[in-house]
Amino acid sequence: MENEYKVEETKFGTKISHPSYGTLLFNRAYGGKTPLFGSSIEHSNTITMELRHANITRSLNEDNIFGSEPIIKVEPSYAGNYSYSC
To answer: How far apart are the C-alpha atoms of 5 and 35, rounded to whole Å?
Structure first.
């Protein structure tokens, strides 16, 4: 198996990326009316979860993890109905 790590020097430090690196982002959304799959009502309170590609930037004394382009976004209601996009 080939080494799939990608290392590049930037002005912020050494940027390391790999296909297995990812971040999860969670948010609560209030307001508006959102129709969700499998639900007969519109929801005004939902939770958003995004899975994103990520990379690590190493500088002098710390590692910073940054999420980049989204892979998938899931938006469930508190009742369990959901919507997703890729």
So the answer is: 40
Q: Domain coordinates of the chain in residue numbers?
A: 6-85
Please give the structure tokens belonging to residue 16.
């390391």
Write the DSSP symbol of residue 80: S
The CA distance from 49 to 12, in Å, is: 28
d(Cα 50, Cα 29) in Å, to the nearest integer? 13
**What pLDDT band is residue 1 in, cutting at 50, 70 and 90?**
very low
Whole-model pTM over 0.85: no
Distance CA 2, CA 65 (A): 24
User: Looking at the DSSP assignment, which residues form a beta bridge with residue 70?
Assistant: 52
Contacts of 39 (CB under 8 A, 6+ apart): 77, 79, 81
11-20, 26-35, 72-81, range with the lowest pLDDT: 72-81
Q: Which helix (H) or strand (E) holds 3?
A: none
